[in-house]
């Protein structure tokens, strides 16, 4: 009787489902506590109370935006130290991150871009965080896939990918 792969493939599918669901479970937990330190740590809260309105008036990645980040100083360093989805949390930046950290970071960028109604400036982010060309391509492919699935009244909407 010839080999039938059904049992082996079915078991493989169950294992993959387990790991995908585990990944989602971890990400759900991270989503529930994302940036909680901004509200729990009085130093961080004071910093973000002061700077959030100002940052909203500055173009993301602009010299004025970068100047604001510098002016936030030690308070912003506290935030980075408490939150692993920021490359600044790690001595070696993005290279120190896990896939969980990366996914949360990209979701953070998407939330900020959605709030401002602007696409994500990958040129700026690649330079700022020393993102490899391969990782940039993966992130941009993700934006494309998300954008392809988004429509408004049946018309495709490009939210995240900056177009030339």
Strand content: under 5%
Low-confidence stretches: none
Helix amount: 55-70%
Mean pLDDT: 91
| Main sheet strand line-up | 1-2
Radius of gyration: 19 Å
Let me know the number of strands. 2
Shape: elongated
Account of the protein in words:
- The chain has 164 residues and is an all-alpha fold.
- The protein folds into three domains: 1-33, no CATH class; 36-83, no CATH class; 84-164, no CATH class.
- Helix content is 68%, strand content 2%.
- It has seven helices and two strands, in the order αααααααββ.
- It has helices at residues 6-33, 37-40, 42-57, 63-82, 99-116, 122-129, 133-149; strands at residues 151-152, 155-156.
- It has a two-stranded antiparallel ribbon.
- The chain is elongated, with a radius of gyration of 19 Å.
- The termini are far apart.
Search tags:
single chain, about 70% helix, two-stranded antiparallel sheet, elongated, mainly alpha, about 160 residues
Q: What is the strand and helix layout of this fold?
A:
Elements: H1 6-33, H2 37-40, H3 42-57, H4 63-82, H5 99-116, H6 122-129, H7 133-149, E1 151-152, E2 155-156
Antiparallel strand pairs: 1-2
Helix pairs in contact: 3-4
